Amino acid sequence: MSRTLLLIGAGRMGAALARGWIAEGRGPEIAAIEPNPDPVFARALKKAGGLLNPKGALIAAPKAVVLAVKPQMLEAVARDAARFAAARPVFVSIAAGVGLAKLETWLGDRAAIVRAMPNLPAAVGEGVTVATPNGRVSRAQKALAGALLKAAGALEWLDDESPIDAVTAVSGSGPAYVFLLAEAMAAAGVAAGLKPDLAARLARTTVAGAGALLSAWPERDAATLRRDVTSPGGTTEAALKILMANDALQKLMTRAVQAAARRAGELGR
Ligand SMILES: NC(=O)c1ccc[n+]([C@@H]2O[C@H](COP(=O)([O-])OP(=O)(O)OC[C@H]3O[C@@H](n4cnc5c(N)ncnc54)[C@H](OP(=O)(O)O)[C@@H]3O)[C@@H](O)[C@H]2O)c1
């Protein structure tokens, strides 16, 4: 059977996407090309009816070609993948910092291309991906690309890629800011007299639990949730008075996001 979903690069992100496709029953549609496959992923793909590193004839006419290699490998991989363009697939690139113009140069300017920016929680299906189609992507191709990307979590479409540096600075780099928050809470717990391993467990579970609430209650925004747990004159209020004095945390976060966006712009040139 010919495979219609071609995944090129089944590393951390590519395999995470493919695990989502398998969970949705798309296993028999998948062909993955990966020089160094993770054995657990390889077994899962095979069990689901997918193919790993198949012969060319089995992927002659893909409907979607997902490019999930590191940005530095992408030019060579995309130039090679351009051979599938005659079958009119939608190409989906998840490489950070590689814009549609470059992708069109490598894949051909008639290629239908979606540039997507996932983030690390995609590895557990809890990511958020921001995607931009080029002018060649049909409605059906956008729907297919969207369905494939949603395997990694939430999906936001942008009509043009100009805000992508800001997206990179908020959702792309964002998980690291939250990890830093957990580190800082743990260190502060130690300073307040807790044993380091207990402080680390409390900080980790608290950050994860607060994230789960944000996810489970989308109708309540972050500010509402914060206000809900802040009793007047209570302990949380005492801490927030420090964090929010003169907008201290807000100002720091604004500078951090600006620095990340600036760097994304430099790297993308
Ligand atoms: N990880 C993140 O948080 C994140 C977030 C946003 C975007 N992204 C983007 O996602 C892409 C993949 O990142 P990743 O973290 O998944 O990287 P990764 O784990 O290194 O996965 C890339 C895989 O592609 C394989 N590969 C190399 N050359 C290939 C070729 N010619 N054909 C087929 N496969 C090939 C690599 O094999 P070898 O190991 O043998 O080289 C590797 O297994 C990157 O472009 C990155 O910018 C990642």
Write up what this structure looks like.
The protein has 269 residues and is of the alpha/beta class. It folds into two domains: 5-162, 3-Layer(aba) Sandwich (Rossmann fold); 172-268, Orthogonal Bundle (ProC C-terminal domain-like fold). The protein is 51% helix and 13% strand. The chain is built from eleven helices and eight strands. The protein has an eight-stranded mixed sheet, sandwiched between helices. Strand 1 (5-8), helix 1 and strand 2 (30-33) form a beta-alpha-beta unit. Helix 7 (174-191) crosses helix 8 (196-216). The longest helix is centred in the C-terminal third of the chain and has 21 residues, at 196-216. The two termini are 41 Å apart. The model has no long low-confidence stretch (mean pLDDT 94). The structure holds NADP nicotinamide-adenine-dinucleotide phosphate. NADP nicotinamide-adenine-dinucleotide phosphate is lined by residues 8-9, 11-14, 33-36, 68-71, 73, 77, 94-96, 118-120, 172.
Shape: elongated
Q: At CATH's second level, what is the architecture of the largest domain?
A: 3-Layer(aba) Sandwich
Main beta-sheet strand count, sense and barrel state: 8 strands, mixed
First-last Cα distance: 41 Å
Strand order of the largest sheet: 3-2-1-4-5-6-7-8
SS summary, helix count: 11
Average of the residue pLDDT scores: 94
* Structural class based on helices, strands and sheet pairing: alpha/beta
Radius of gyration: 21 Å
Percentage of β-strand residues: 5-15%
Fraction of residues in H or I helices: 40-55%
CATH homologous superfamily (4th level) name of the largest domain: NAD(P)-binding Rossmann-like Domain
Bound molecules: NADP nicotinamide-adenine-dinucleotide phosphate
